[in-house]
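TEACHING EXERCISE
Course module: macromolecular assemblies
Task: Read the component lines below, then compare them to the predicted structure of the full complex.
Student: A.B.
Group: 4
Components provided:
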Amino acid sequence: MPNPVTSTEPGQSQSQTQVVPLLPLEYKSHSDLLDDACTPQGSIKPEWEYMLGGLRDLGPEALRERAQKARRILRDDGATFNIYDGEGGPGGSWELDPVPYIIGSEDWARIEAGLLERSELFNLLLRDLYGPRTLLRHGLLPPEALFSHGGFLRACQGIQMPGEQELIVHAVDMIRRHDGTMCVLSDRSQAPAGAGYVLENRTVMSRVFPSLYRDSHVHRIASFYQRLRHKLISLSPSDEAPLIALLTPGGQNEAYFEHTYLASYLGFSLVQSGDLMVRNGFLWMKSMDGLKRVDVLLRQIDDAFCDPVELRSDSRLGVPGLLEVVRSGRVVVANPLGSGVLENPIFLKYLPGISKSLLGREPRLDSVQTWWAGDDDDLEFITANIRELIIKPAYRGTGISSVWGGDLNDEELNKLLATVHSKRYQYVAQERLQKPHIPSFANGALEPRPALLRTFSVASDGTSYKILPGGLTRIGTDTGSGVISMQSGSPSKDTWVTASEQERTASIDSVPDSARIAADSPLLSLPSRVVENLYWMGRYSERAEAALRLLRTVFVLLRGEEPISPNAQKILLHTVSDITATLPGFTIAPQELLANPDEELLDIIRDGSRAGSVKSTLNSMLASADESKELLSTDTTRVINDLRDAMVELDVVLDSGLTSAPEEALDPLVTTLTALSGLMHESMVRGIGWRFMLLGKRIERSLQTLNTVRCLATPVVDDADQTTLLNALLVSMEVLITYRRHGRQRRGIELGLELVLLDDRNPRSLLFQLEQLQQHLAELPKAETKPGELAEEDRALLEAMTSLRLARLPQLLETSSPTREELGQLLLQLKQLLQEFNRIISDKHFDHRTDEQHLVTSFWGEQ
Amino acid sequence: MRYRIKHITRYNYAARVTRCYNLANVIPRDTARQRCLSNRITLSPLPSTTHKRTDYFGNKAFHFEIQKAHSELSITAVSEVEVADNDNAPNLDLGIAYKDAQEYFRKSSKPEIIEAREFLLSSPLIETSDVLADYARPSFDPKRSLKSCVADLTRRIFREFTYDPHFSTIATPLADVLKHKKGVCQDFAHLEVGCLRAMGIPAKYVSGYIETLPKPGEQKLVGADATHAWIAFFCPEEGWVEFDPTNDSMAGNQHIVTAFGRDYFDVTPLRGVIFGGGAGPALSVSVDVSRMAGPQA
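Instructor-supplied answer key:
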């Protein structure tokens, strides 16, 4: 159990697992490494003392527990950063080091001033590059530096946003130098990643270190997000309440968590390419209640991918025709299309001159020294000093990564030099700065790790910007390691700008960081894709549950004390194939396989590549959950995490084949699915998404009930087998207890079917499902119908309901043939009606997208 | 000379197209030697929105969106263009020498030269290379006039390359065109632009139309004209000068410009995204260039 140790109770953790005596948490800098927490003499800098003192009091064991707690919260929040390791699917949790990066407020004031100026400068630069290009004409920037850069999108010439600011969000990567000043390594101006993770890091840290955080008087960050929200709202071209959408590439993107998190925090709709369309010169979102006009788009994809008509034609992430809507001013995209040009590192070389021209002074914040191979002198310098330089392409979109000349052998160096010489406009060289180290928690101690800070600016009033106090700190995975990149698994840190003693009395910023800005805001509208995914989440979860319950029942019967007949075994196994739709499976199996079904049963559970297997159904459900992630509560995310764990666990248990009691191995999954089912009822807002999720569940459960009854109750068998099959039906439908309570008077298949099909008090009966479906249907948006006329879906459902209610069980069960034909007929009719119902619902409410293709005339046409 | 140009682009689809978004470069721009007097574009089916604008290169871009399901799309552009007569052939031997011109482009700070330097760089479909420079070099005697060097290169391409409409597609790399010495006007224009850039001369790709005259005694066929492509290079004294490597000529009063660009990518006559349409949309293009009577404007 974690011990509630706080910084006010100097921490002697009482953890029982510890065997090693506690060492105090002391931080020692390495004498040969640049350190940002210590002076060159090795003593802790004043601004770090309070926080490090707090950790020292806490002790290593308690800090380890806090780190674990942080990890748990991140996991429950679904905080992931997908790293593609070549094994196919995305994976990877967001790593947060529990030791924050401390920046004193006086120091921060200087950094902030430099950043404000830099964002203003970059904004002016952007306006000039897509406008008059005076910088080129005045010789402050060689034309090749702009014209050869892949980020310069000629189609975006002349597009203007309302107001003075074109650059809305600007991120800057920087490190601390020996002299204590910050040095900028690069600028990010497309859709800078990280601001959402900053918020998550802060939320976690304030929960894990409540008193340390409170007493450190950390500058609040929430107002940054409010500014962003207000700025985007102010950009809306419409007079009505604007619809603002955050455009994400989708669940496969590395930072998808951040997209869902930001959209939900800011109260914006989270959309993907397919959710949007251009029509009649406007941008629209396909929502459940028709097309909704989008006023502002906060893009999380690079500009070149935003419109396949005019930009990259191979992109499937954008919206065809978007650029034209932007040109006409009917939608505003932030950052503006074309802003990627600012990431050009060649500009760093010319920045002092550019700044003097645009702002009247040289920038306060230094940038890393940059040489451009397009300049004759620079090329000579690069050629002579390549071993000491970092060589990188001017345009990130090429997929070529930067290299440190010192890492290359002679042959590689010559090859690189040849490339640089032949494409000289495309390459820059930069000095390699030693990264400063800061204390990080590793191996139970505080160790120095190299650190990189990413800051964020957002356009505010007039021409000014607002800077997020602090930012996203990333650290190397080892002391002295050169590379820090999220893709290579570098952990992150919260960044605390701490107030000085005098400031601590004054309140810094009253808005708490954890408060969600706008849940259920009017700006939020659901794309129909999300609703469709909720519907499928409902269906898949129910399908998996039905399969698991049946499998559990079958395992118990097959391995029970009383042997069952080969015929009953055959029918049970056929039912398994039928219910899981892993056909033909057992239905065409020879006698030996039916007698030794373990391998096939195992397959049906764990073969993820087989459609219908439990694993594949659960994976489909998880994929649907991912697509609607922003609507799921933290509790739901937690249960979904448990489900993933249970699946891994099951794989381990089943690794050596079926155990003696395989049904027990399935229990955790059934329990988790039941919990999920409960949460769907209890912790979701009764919105349209919720309705569709339950609609999905009810439809699936109805179909599964019909199938199960058909498989187990239509064959006419001898009494012993009848008992076995009825038992299977009652157990898998969870009505055995009710059945038994009816006493000795009424037993047998008639009572069983009554409970499973017609008992409207039984939440698993078919009638109950149909009644629920009617209720949900009544609440769905609907087209007008004439008085007295039923909509198609109402008609199908009413017919199913009526046929079921009119059924007379004794009559249905009478038969002289080997199957109960009348029962079979009824079940078939109900199934067809429900499928019809389902088809109408999905046709009406879900988007069926036609494929797009690209059209380019070949030049010589008919020849 | 005054021309009326009718340019019809037609797509037939195997399956229904539910909607489409397009950008067409089919309106002749104004240039130093031509003026577009009128232009009318007719679309079938009717578009839901259209928009004409001047693009980055000064060309007339035409955007349209169709929201009506269709299985055939046709775009008919009818333009009237006045082209200046240039009867007296210029003396190519006059003017700045190649070497001086090259130097001038590097050093001049005149705004038009700064802008022209964009056309010295590689572009989406034209990668400048040593191979191209090696091919071009024999035409570029440093002491000769720039114009006569370009004229020589134009003539060599005309003489050494075979017009073969079956050899290349829009995706054929320049290296293949150079190796096999075959292609169509677009390839020759790309090749010459690439050669000029490799030799340090700013060069543009020009798309447009060329009037074809029937053989004496024959009737001119309807739709027999074609879209055409040639080049323009920057001459310090005169600005952009157009040469046609497919016909070994300077662009004269039979060359009507639609658009200038770095290469075909910038001036594609029609590009867009369609939803649906099935496999292999069938394209047909017809162009008529006819002389108009009437007073000179």
